[in-house]
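Q: Study each token:
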Amino acid sequence: MIRVTAGLLEKDEKLLIAQRRRGDELEFKWELPGGKIEANESPEECLKRELFEEFNIITKVDEFFGSNEYEYEHGHIVLLAYRVKHISGEFTPNSHNKIQWVVPEKLMDYDFAEADKPLIKKYLKEKHVI
């Protein structure tokens, strides 16, 4: 079982999503940014660290949003999602092909990783899009 975090980071009524690079597992799939929880690390600590490593930003992790489990060929993922606030830093995609700020109504136009899809649907229901 691989425990992974994901952040829901909003700005100007848009949600930040990131596209995986060529050669990555799930290459070119879109996802909520985050990463694998390391030993002796809380999910919140992991998410702050991952967002700094991936985008050079300082964040505040807020409340838990939801979770999902998915069985990929490369392992069983438990994805823990949290709401996140941007504190400082310019967004620089260090480990993704690209990032995108997307209005909720357009999120379904993106090819998300399977583990992320239920969380995106929950977000869209919350925003009264579906």
Notes: Residues 67 and 111 are 19 Å apart (CA to CA).
